[in-house]
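We emphasize that the prediction below concerns an isolated chain of 270 residues; any contacts that depend on oligomerization or on bound cofactors are therefore not represented. The input was used exactly as deposited, without trimming of termini.
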Amino acid sequence: MGTIVSFHAHPDDESIASSGTLAKAAAAGHRVVLVFATRGELGEPVPGVLAEGEQLAVRRSMECYDSAAVIGAKRVEFLGYTDSGMMGEPSNDAPFCFWQASVEHAARRLALILEEEEPDVLTTYDDNGGYGHPDHIQVHRVGKRAGDLAAVPVVAQATTNRDWMLRGMRGMAEAGQLPEGWEIPTAATAPNFGKPEAEITHRVDVVDFAETKRASMRAHKSQIAPDHFLLSMPDGVFGMGMGVEFYIVDNVPSVASGSGLFEDLFSPMR
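Result of the prediction step, given as a token string:
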């Protein structure tokens, strides 16, 4: 059996980006490890969720462990940086935020965990962090460097398949299932969201783990309310929209060189 380490910017990112892949790996007997760069201090809590005096960072840290239990992850680690907030916010300049961290120093922190775990696969994000969030972009940079430092065989960049998303939303619109208030993005309105299908190399079919993925999201109660559109989707629509996770893998190992984890999970797009 093998090991997969999944590196994320904030608590709850794992549930949306990669929890299907991770749950599938755990169900197959592989070891799953979660690493978070920050504790998500600058997130916007669901109204009424926090108790009086409760710190959001403490709550979100706890929720990581709840999500890990749902997924089947065996270890959760935090690199210790603070949340940078959205791009362009004054919080981007805070000296201890992840966006301001030295890539080399942060990568060495992550590499220590990777050297202990000796993973077959490290998951990060694409070079735009999925949608341009500074901490997500930094996950890409730090993850890539840490993967090099620790000689991880595969670094898989989680991304959104922009073309898949648009096809699905058009199909929902034609069937009258597009939620009220939704608009189908265009190249003009969402030019930096995800990646075009031509740039994506691999996919992981997680339809059978759709409910586990949704349960992982529910674990993050401070961020994802019960009426959040992802949680309130009909089962079939959720499975269709969230039942495949997409990755960019620059260097694919030979079958003989690994534990079989990569081949078990990741299917080539072409």
